[in-house]
Write a structure and sequence with these properties.
The chain is of the alpha/beta class and 208 residues long. It has a domain of 117 residues: Rossmann fold (3-Layer(aba) Sandwich), CATH 3.40.50.1820. The protein contains eight helices and five strands; from the N terminus they run E-E-H-H-E-H-E-H-E-H-H-H-H. Strands 1, 2, 3, 4 and 5 form a five-stranded mixed beta sheet that branches.
Length: 208
């Protein structure tokens, strides 16, 4: 809704960059009319994942965050792992959302994959199982379209991330079993085009 003429929004990041840093430019671009709150995923709040962490942990974290911010209804944005968590929250609490915006939600669309797509992921699984010193070289040596060589980094010093990510879990391996249907634990939602929520949410414009 709007309070004092402002829109309410919660922004969920992916797994690498902390929420405040990931959405700093967007928050500035949105300006004072949008009360935008970047929210860290529960998985990354501490140096270790929460005990028995799962999508329900993230759903409750979003609900609690919104309640503490005084957001009865709000716009929810999610990228990558944050997108998967946003989908799960949308399925659990559709009445809390004015809109849902997703950018590459993790594993959404994995249902009903073609034989070609399943073969691709089997090849990716084989590459991902290699030792780290072999993994990237094997990937870039493959004939997969996604394996084109990355562009060179821009000139000048690169922004330091060691201090930013040092307190985060070592990698995203702890979240894959929860977010990935191919690891036997799919999120309790369907891809965006077929969300079963009782009524549309992502394509509807709210009043504020």
């Amino acid at each position: 809704m709007r309070e004092g003429g402002r829109f309410h929004a919660i922004l969920l990041p992916g797994g690498v960059t902390p929420a405040e840093l990931a959405y700093a430019d967007l928050v500035r671009a949105l300006g004072p009319e949008v009360d935008a709150h970047p929210k860290e995923l529960e998985l990354y709040i501490g140096s270790e994942p929460p005990t028995a962490w799962g999508l329900q942990t993230e759903i409750e974290g979003i609900r609690r965050f919104a309640d503490e911010a005084g957001f009865e209804r709000f716009h929810l944005v999610g990228y990558s792992g944050g997108g998967a968590c946003a989908l799960a929250f949308c399925a659990a609490h559709p009445d809390r959302l004015l809109s849902l915006a997703l950018n590459e939600p993790a594993w959404a669309g994995n249902e009903d994959r073609s034989e070609e797509e399943q073969a691709y992921w089997r090849r990716m699984d084989e590459i991902m199982s290699l030792p780290s010193e072999e993994m990237m070289a094997t990937f870039f040596a493959s004939d997969e379209p996604a394996a084109s060589q990355p562009p060179p980094p821009p000139p000048g010093p690169q922004p330091p991330l060691d201090g930013v990510t040092a307190s985060r879990p070592e990698d995203d391996a702890c979240c894959v079993p929860v977010l990935s249907p191919r690891h036997g634990a799919a999120p309790p939602v369907r891809p965006p085009g077929s969300l079963h929520l009782g009524r549309p949410v992502g394509s509807r414009r709210g009043s504020g």
